[in-house]
Amino acid sequence: MNTSLKPLLISLTAFALVFAALPAGATASPQDCEAGTADCVAPIEPAITEVSSDITTAEPISAIQEPPRKTLTARERSPHFFASKSYNRWYAKMYIKRAYGWDTYNWKCLDRLWQLESGWNELAKNRRSGAYGIPQALPGNKMAAMGRNWKKNPEVQIKWGSSYIKSRYKSPCKALAFMERRGWY
Predict the structure, then answer these.
(1) Half-sphere exposure of 46 (CA within 13 A, CB side)
(2) I need a surface site. Which of 91, 99, 148, 171 has the fewest CB within 10 A?
(3) What is the model's pLDDT at position 138?
(4) CA triplet 76, 77, 83: central angle to 5 degrees?
């Protein structure tokens, strides 16, 4: 039996037992039933006690009424269309804070760095060098380490690019400073 229906079924059973025990139109008081002077059907109490013992072992109603919570993906939480420049920036800001704890100062550096590199376009390709994607990975297929769909998925590119920055430069601001000195990072 479905566990979410069990308490309801037990309650309905107890209700039906109480009304089945009383004749139609009977309005006997508890004193009349105890004295045996009214049309009471005995014993009512054992049936109710039996049902109530089942109710105490059932799940609380508040736990049953809550629908299961679904964890939303970043795409479902985002106020932007997937793979738009605004989505790419929104996802990167959220991701670097959660994954690396980088603050607003580092976010501004990353935003400027990737704006200069690709304009936040996940399909950006440098015609001269062949660098690809938001972080301008060279060669682009290095990003496959973060996911098979690296060519079109900005989330994979952002994860790879931020991981690269963390391992090589420690922070986006250091990567930006290097890029401004050398012209690449």
Answers:
(1) 3
(2) 148
(3) 95
(4) 65
